[in-house]
Design a protein that fits this description.
Layout lengths: L29 E3 H5 L3 H13 L2 E5 L4 H21 L3 H5 L10 E3 L16 E6 H4 L13 H5 L1 H25 L4 H5 L11 E7 L12 E4 L5 E6 L4 E4 L17 E3 L6 E6 L1 H6 L9 E3 L11 E8 L28 H11 L8
Parallel strand pairs: 1-2
Antiparallel strand pairs: 2-10, 3-4, 4-5, 5-12, 6-11, 7-10, 7-12, 8-9, 8-11
Helix pairs in contact: 2-7, 3-7
Bound molecules: 2-oxoglutaric acid and fe (ii) ion (FE2).
The site of 2-oxoglutaric acid has 11 residues, from strand 5, strand 7, strand 11 and strand 12.
Length: 355
């Protein structure tokens, strides 16, 4: 789409539908947030089943207040994202992620997408939850740009709601695992320091029809649970669940299949911390982002992602639960979530600016 002053490129009402026919899509379960909040036992069982197999599902947001907050909030955050990505490159670069940091700006091309070093094409801005939920007078971990600060109330509300939605799902999973929900919840407390962020992403329009260009390379998320809002196709999951894949390449035979965005629904997926805590009972689905298919590819692609990650000081160990097998051997040296997450981020092939 052409881009001029005052022209909006995040225009979800104008996007053409996801093209049918030529594109193999994955059938994900649709789970109702309202039913989960109403303690509907069948819906809760379905969450557990799908998290053991694929680790990805649609979360229907209609019919409850938190769902509405997420639905409307994601549109508002995407509008902030659009304005952020329109800032001069120098201003964005001033926010760039430093070594070992999870928040800040990642420019186009800062990550490699394959072993030969092909650069990615998406830009991100990661905003730290712990800063946005503080009173505005409090000292923050960095000086956020005025655009972000002006929208602090929006980020605050969105993060709190997405976080509590993530915790609701984690506590349902804990119950089904025969574990104490408290053992999961006490590792993901809202106000404790953690790598929790909102990631605002922008991928450029598709350059040509066959283009294999990669916006975000193959990965599994490294936190516990991710709540993703997207409006255009581009997200793909690996057809077979891969539980122990290395970075960049899936380790099981299969193919990439498209995840069709569903209006009024979030996409929920589990990350590697959920796999670690449950000794592999839960699954973190491998995924990547390519330019949107067909006509949709003419639009730049925005997504708004909220990551619930373990608190920095929590130890990454298998939790107790009747359905969680004990590790066969004594686990190696214990590691905190803070250290573990930095290790996982390195595994993703992120090139930090100093490296
Ligand atoms: O943009 C999307 O749809 C997915 C983004 C993603 O996988 C991520 O940021 O971890
Ligand atoms: Fe992801």
């Amino acid at each position: 789409m052409p881009h001029a002053e005052g022209y909006t490129e995040f225009t979800p009402d104008e996007y053409p539908p996801f093209p049918e026919g030529d594109f193999t899509t994955v059938e994900l379960e649709t789970i109702s947030l309202k039913k989960l909040l109403d303690e509907d036992a069948t819906e809760q069982d379905r969450v557990f089943q799908t998290c053991k197999t694929r680790g990805f599902f649609y979360l229907e947001l209609a019919g409850c207040e938190s769902g509405e907050t997420i639905r409307k909030g994601a549109d508002d955050v995407a509008r902030v994202a659009e304005r952020f990505f329109q800032l001069p490159q120098q201003e964005k670069d001033a926010q760039r992620m430093q070594k070992g940091q999870l928040d800040g700006y990642k420019s186009v091309g800062a990550t490699v997408t394959d072993k030969t070093g092909t650069p990615d094409t998406a830009e991100f801005m990661n905003i730290a939850k712990n800063d946005m939920i503080l009173p505005s007078s409090a000292k923050m971990s960095r000086t956020w740009p005025p655009l972000i600060m002006q929208n602090q109330p929006l980020f605050d509300t969105y993060m709190r709601t997405a976080h509590s939605t993530g915790l609701k799902i984690l506590s349902i999973l804990a119950t089904h695992l025969g574990a104490k929900p408290e053992d999961f919840l006490s590792r993901h407390r809202l106000e404790e320091s953690s790598g929790d962020i909102i990631r605002m992403t922008r991928g450029p329009p598709r350059k040509n029809a066959e283009m294999p260009e990669i916006q975000t390379p193959s990965h599994t998320d490294f936190g516990s649970i991710t709540l993703l809002m997207n409006w255009l196709g581009g997200l793909q999951v690996w057809s077979e669940s891969a539980r122990s894949a290395g970075p960049l390449e899936p380790d099981t035979p299969g193919e990439w299949v498209w995840v069709k965005p569903k209006r009024g629904h979030a996409i929920i997926n589990l990350g590697d911390a959920a796999v670690k805590f449950t000794n592999g009972v839960l699954c973190s689905g491998r995924h990547r982002v390519v330019p949107s298919p067909g006509e949709q590819g003419k639009w730049p692609r925005y997504s708004i992602v909220y990551f619930v990650r373990p608190e920095n000081e929590c130890m990454m160990e298998v939790l107790e639960g009747k359905e969680i097998p004990r590790p066969e051997q004594e686990e190696g040296s214990r590691i905190s979530a803070r250290e573990w997450i930095v290790q996982q981020a390195k595994g993703l092939g992120t090139k930090f600016p100093e490296n």
